[in-house]
Amino acid sequence: MKKTVVCFIVLCLFFALQNAMAARLSDEDLSKKIEGWYPTGLPLVNYDSDNGFGYGVRVYLYNNGTRDDEYFAMHHIRCSSTDSFTKQPMGISTTK
Fold it and tell me: How far apart are CA 41 and CA 36, in angstroms?
């Protein structure tokens, strides 16, 4: 029982300290980093033997926060969201 508690405490400390000791982005990456929300996307092409060929788009929405944020220089992305829209001969489907 004591070993389990000690292992749990060590693991908690390890994961807590990882965030505190996070490496900063390089100066080059930091200068290229976009502030705030921005979208990106990818085209999708698929084939299903029942429905045939399909096409669509996958949309990514990212938020880096502001340069005033204390974690701006440490994290690549503050939060993100992904959505997919596809069109096939049998109809439209969306996936989150």
Answer: 17
Count of beta carbons in the 10 Å neighbourhood of residue 79: 11
pTM value? 0.56
Q: For residue 69, give the DSSP letter.
A: S
Q: Alpha-carbon distance 3 to 9, whole Å?
A: 10
Q: What is the pLDDT of residues 33-63, one digit of tens each?
A: 888 898 999 999 988 787 788 889 999 999 8
Backbone CA torsion sign across 96, 81, 83, 58: negative
The full length of the chain comes to 96
Neighbours of 86 (CB within 10 A): 19
